[in-house]
Design a protein that fits this description.
- The complex is a heterodimer of chains A (about 475) and B (about 230).
- Chain A folds into 2 domains: about 290 residues, 3-Layer(aba) Sandwich (Rossmann fold), CATH 3.40.50.10420; about 80 residues, no CATH class.
- Chain A is about 50% helix and about 10% strand.
- Chain A contains 21 helices and 12 strands.
- In chain A, the strands form 3 sheets. Chain A has a 6-stranded parallel beta sheet, sandwiched between helices.
- Chain A is globular, with a radius of gyration of 25 Å.
- By secondary structure, chain B is an alpha/beta fold.
- Chain B has a single domain, classed as Rossmann fold (3-Layer(aba) Sandwich).
- Helices cover about 30% and strands about 25% of the residues of chain B.
- Chain B contains 7 helices and 13 strands.
- Classes of the chains: A alpha/beta (about 475), B alpha/beta (about 230).
- The interface between A and B is large, with 106 and 86 residues.
Chain lengths: ~475, ~230
Amino acid sequence: MSVKIGEAPYNERITKGIENDFMREAVSSAQGRFRAGRLSQAEELGNWEDWRRLGEEIRTHTIENIDFYLQQLSDAVSNKGGNVYFAETAEEANHYIQNVVKKKNARKVVKAKSMVTEEIGLNKAIKDLGVEVVESDLGEWILQLDEEAPSHIVTPALHKNKEQIRDIFAKKRGYDKSDDPEELAAFARKELRKDFLSADVGITGCNFAIAESGAITLVTNEGNAEMVTTLPDTVITVMGMERIVPTWEEMEVLVSLLTRSAVGQKLTSYITTYGGARLEDEVDGPDDYHLVIVDNGRSKILGTEFQAALHCIRCASCINVCPVYRHVGGHAYNSIYPGPIGAVITPLLDGYDDHKELPYASSLCGACTEACPVKIPLHEMLIRHRQIIVERENKAPMTEKILMNGFAKWSSSPAAYKISTKLARPALIPWIKDEDMIENGPGPLKGWTDVRDFPAPSKKSFRAWFKERESEQHERSK
Amino acid sequence: MNVQNKESFLNNLADRLNRPRRTQGVARPDWSVYPQYEVFKGASQDELVEVLEKQCEAIHTDFIQTDQMELPIVLEETIRKYDGKSIIVSNDPRNEKYGLNRFYKNLDENVNVHIWDPELGKGNQVIAEQADVGITFSDITLAESATVTLFNNKNNGRSISLLPKTYIAIIPKSTLVPRMTQAANQIHEATLKGETVASYVSFISGPSNSADIEMNLIVGVHGPIKATYILVD
């Protein structure tokens, strides 16, 4: 089990992303809207930098004392009649959850959107028991029907258009209405309502666990997480171990940072806190509650120079400003965590072997670091990854090796350089978007331009210009 | 209850952090900034009402301001607007205080009103699922985000604000605070004193919605499709 999505190599994934016009446009427009939303919310507060500083301080303190706060959380949940399971690996987590599902003789499990359950491959583990798993977040449900992986951590089906969604509904669920988003959503509401009411077990992720009172905070808009935690008699929360805050007061600050950064909302429609078994005489909520706290490689990051990567609150604002993500889309990262944060944490969680290209999927422009609401130095971490890959692991990706070799040859021979710079401009014209930047270069350049906007060769190469100038002067002096 | 693998898991974290395990004595430091308390600092209740009303527009929620005398009339109009034939309401002591018990009894005989009844168990959920309108009081109201905070308990099931097609929140003006900060602070203080905070606290801002299809805002997904806030002076 891992965060990896598939086996296709980096170049193929990138090509697929770049050639998907709808996806690229959808991503680009989504980025624009997410970014505008975040900026206007930040501006409205007036002191956004203070908020970011507070966010950073809270996350730093909490992760430095993570053993203490997890113990406090665990005590509080068990005092409220809940079960707590600490899972070091994905396998342990899946095994525990499988046992709960089996013990309940469950036929159907309904889930609310959760990245960590994607990470550990929980759906497959449950399906292996012959139990049905239903994703209830609208975007996740669409992808589940179409058997595809998410491409964005906030809006997972961003790469699909409404016609495609209509066709999926028609093919998989006999939908016969239009591609109007409201009508599509109404259909999903009707279909999923049946699942909420008939599920034996509900499973959610966790945005922030509040240590002082053993409460799990979920941040959603659709109301599906509320259904999942209200209706089934057995509820399981799966949380990455770092998703924790000391008290309600820090939860509040981080939720404010999250909703503003993720979707440009002051708060989402539902901020829900739950945890533990329902109290006597209560009707809603589970009588059997389980909290599964997952390590799965996170503890390896503690005590290292990458510790701040665990501060991430999964808002995706780094993804929404990233020029590389804009071009290649989420699937190109081959990780359930795409974008700059994905490029930082995927190699940490899953090793460099399969993900050595990721730290190069960045222009190092620093937009991610600037957008991060808890001030994780993302682009600096990417540079550090590159150093480690090159120095310690000796695994510089082929694209960079070829480019460097090529460049070395290119620039070491004046004749070759003269020819190639002269040729470069006309050859690259089709890819020059703005006057001065090449966005998607051909051939070997492509590996680069996915990574950064490559400056276009000057219209007139220096040598050509100099030669011309000399002959002009020569003319004049005649 | 049942806690498994805790010691080995937490010991490993302490090892990774290159220090002994911390089991006590950790306190939150003083943060260098507290911007959350600056938002609408010193605003009067009336100013907060304005903020609330304006934000309601942004979250597609109808906003009505009234007083205790007029509340039944406004409520009846809103129920009619939602074509409410079946209604579920919380079993809240404020129903009596605001004269709503009598109002619910005297409503049109074609309108079915169910007051949440712990004795009925899961039957409450079945009724809520079929209901056109769910009605609750707000316990703390956040002006900035136009959010009603509900302390769900045995008399105020969370199904009421979740399962019906539409939702009406009655907001006593006295519950209005600037933002989520004040609500979190109140719950934190209660927790410190060892008081039982509700097993489930919902912060609800308008009807359910989604932007999962081509980033178009769809109002009304799994939870209520429409919502009205009635602020009572």
